[in-house]
Amino acid sequence: MPDIIEIVISALLVIAGLFGLIGSYGMIKLRDTMQRLHAPTKATTIGIGSVLIASLLHNYAVQGHLSFHELLITLFLFLTAPITANFIAKTYMAKHVAEDEVPDSGRDYGWTVYDDPPMSAPDPVTDPKE
Amino acid sequence: MRLLPHPLLSLALAMVWLALVNTVTLGNVILGLLFGWAIPLLTAAYWPDRPSLRKPWLFIGYFLLVLWDIVVANVQVALIILFKRRDNIRSEWVRVPLDLTSPEAITMLAGTITMTPGTVSATLSADAGCILVHCLHTDDPDEVRDTIKSRYERRLLEMF
């Protein structure tokens, strides 16, 4: 294996470790749950991304075959990470953030955490007719 | 019922299947296409008003832009965590009114906001006309709102 690829892979792994560490440190340093949410959703995506690119390169340059699993992991991560963060944020808001602490929605209806959505026709999927 | 209710979803499913088995053989391609054909048909009932992407090719540019922003976001958030004193981190709630209407487009925008610079989308207004964003550190909440609207929402509006 040429040295240059070895160096690139090592560099990627070091970057990944650094960002993972900073993300975890953020969990200690930041003040409340809403702030802490920022640390794992951001500082770790680049960490995981670097590990995956390193793995991709290693598979290709050392083992000599292209692996697509890393791309799939990236795809699933992008699909799931924002949804997890959103659920944590909503749960936290419902329990610990009063309605007057956040800005008004400026609409006829308030935020979903505090206010019910407008009544609409029954959903054919969730409310099937008997 | 159309034979291919969602051609893009079919293609995506076939690609995911090929990536999952990790070997491109004729059998796997046929099996992947079979899944791509059957799964959208079987799940069509769960997508009553599925949107059609008007300009799907714009998605590639959008994806690359978001990818780049994620890298920038990572570095920014890391710097804030490392070098800002705890008391100097000024978090703000930012209200972003939406022009997007389809649930799928709003979901994509909310996901993008969460993955990019120092912002997490927290909740929607009950009539889905406005999104509440939590910003880790900002001196100017209005600028955050304008960036989200001009950088991401405008592109999504073109796409859907």
TrEMBL record, chain A:
Q: Where is this region: Disordered?
A: 102-130
Q: Which UniProt keywords apply?
A: Membrane, Transmembrane, Transmembrane helix
Q: Which domain of life is it from?
A: Bacteria
Keyword check for Transmembrane: yes
A Pfam match: PhaG_MnhG_YufB
Query: Which InterPro entries has this protein been placed in?
Result: PhaG_MnhG_YufB
Residues annotated as transmembrane: 6-28, 40-62, 68-89
Which Gene Ontology terms cover its molecular function?
sodium:proton antiporter activity
Q: Which PANTHER family match?
A: ANTIPORTER SUBUNIT MNHG2-RELATED (PTHR34703:SF1)
In terms of NCBIfam families, this protein maps to: CPA3_mnhG_phaG, PRK12674.1-5
Protein name in UniProt: Na+/H+ antiporter subunit G
